[in-house]
């Protein structure tokens, strides 16, 4: 990795802010898909932080190579955001269940975590949510590329 990939740039900042917003909007669109009695706690805030990190580290490092690459970088950042959001939320739920002594061992808890992740991924198969996430990611990628060209 070149040294310049570690330097803060306006493109990275734009990607971080943009994917943070996409994380918040995606969280708000995901809430109605879950059961009524679900306690979300810090759900939105965790996803915003994940969006900011993925925007800076994933999308932001792929900017400055053209608008097609910016388009692709936005989608790549979204993929990372969705992966880590599902992973962390299922880990959190598994830990809550483990503290309630629902598992007999660590392997059962880890297996349950993957079952929860699959359940969350299947819940995300909603047209409005998918459309909003994809549109947001493409918009973030293109705008971040424009910002990276405008203010290098």
TrEMBL record:
Keyword match Hydrolase: no
Alphabetical list of InterPro entries matching this protein: TrgA (IPR047784)
Transmembrane segments: 12-30, 42-59, 71-91, 129-148
Assigned keywords, A-Z: Membrane, Transmembrane, Transmembrane helix
Protein name per the record: Tellurium resistance protein
